Amino acid sequence: MTPAEDRLLSSYDFHLPRELIAQQPVEPRHSARLLIVEPGEGARHRQVWDWIEELRPGDLVVVNDTRVLQARLMARRPSGGLVEVLVLEPWTLSPPAPHQEEGCDWLCLLKPAKRVKIGEVLELQAGPGDPPVRLQVVAMDPVSGGRVVRFPPGLAEPSAMEPFLRRYGAIPLPPYIHAAGGVENDRYQTRYAAKPGAVAAPTAGLHLSDALLQRLQERGVERATVTLHVGLGTFRPLEQEHLEDLQLHSEWVEVTGELVAAVEAARLRGGRVMAVGTTSVRSLEGVAALHGGRLQPHAGAVNLVIQPGFRFQVVQGLLTNFHLPKSSLLLLVSALIGRQRLLSLYGEAIRRRYRFFSFGDAMWIPPEAMVEAARKGPTLSP
């Protein structure tokens, strides 16, 4: 039975010195520090490059191949003031908004938002001599607090929106990064980023350099991809104290038949299924939960809360970053190794001056370190 403390949000709080929030990525990518969780108690302290030695020939590593959009726009109001527009996702509520032929609607976060009225027209300017692009605020989304903004026609999908945002936008680095000058756009992308649609990077994958990926392949470790377009809700602290009825924002996930086949093949040869990042975990486990614990091809929304007491059906190990206090990501990692042990390891990481959050260091949780309650049940095996 899950302890009562594990069901309270306040139990997932910790003090993080501000100077440990990483402001710049390290180079090379694989030189970040790695805290390796030992079975039972204790931890080892290495570098991400040493993760190679933690994997075996025949293991399968699952990565998230989403690509971050340059989704941060600066627009001008009719009054002359500037407003930041963060483009989140296509607005797909049914029934569709009227006059959809006039443009394509996207859910956005505006800053400042309270002053912007529904019906107001904002203007984007790419550069000197370029004609401005008009965006109209057409509705408010009460769930997210965002605004529905109408963009020009032909921008209904992320793949079509990406060239537009490359011209007018910037990479939306997290708000806790204040010293991002000089960070190249591709440094906030994984080396295998392929499918546009995210507004935040799957940050554990930022540690995997071309050299490390090559060495894994040479070692006989297989790699497969899942797609989850990361939204800002992933990183927001939760507000609900009692977690029994916690609901998270739905996320669009694609699990292909090739990925399902790769997982099945790994199991047949005795390999282990390792996730790179919490987004890969949520994708695999969310889709399996929709199919009675069996991973199946799927493209669509998932909405899965993973917290202590959750039994993992697919994932057997996790490479992850160090996460925000009182966040859904902290709940997920606690489900693998237990809340008290996770907070103890975080305390050790703080004492040893590990770097936290998106550009920070990493933690490796091998199968042997998972708590027994988290291990796959035999009745749900594919």
Number of H/I helices: 6
How many strands?
Answer: 17
Please indicate the percent range of residues in DSSP E strands (runs of 2 or more): 15-25%
What's the helical proportion of residues?
10-25%
The N- to C-terminal Cα distance equals: 26 Å
| Rg value | 21 Å
Major pleated sheet = 9 strands, mixed
Could you say which overall geometry the principal axes of the C-alpha atoms support? Answer: globular
Overall mean confidence score, pLDDT: 92
Kindly report the spatial arrangement of strands forming the biggest sheet. 2-1-17-16-14-3-12-13-15
- The topology string of helices and strands comes to EEEEEEEEEEHEHEEHEHEEHHE
Contiguous low-pLDDT stretches (5 residues minimum) are 94-100, 378-382
Overall SS class: alpha/beta
Description:
The protein is an alpha/beta fold and 382 residues long. 18% of the residues lie in helices and 24% in strands. The chain has helices at 158-168, 210-219, 257-268, 278-290, 328-337, 339-351, and strands at 33-37, 43-47, 60-64, 66-68, 72-76, 82-90, 104-111, 121-124, 133-140, 147-151, 195-198, 222-228, 251-255, 273-276, 298-302, 317-321, 362-365. The strands form 3 sheets. The chain has a 9-stranded mixed beta sheet. Strand 5 (72-76) and strand 6 (82-90) form a beta hairpin. Helix 5 packs across helix 6 (339-351). It is globular.
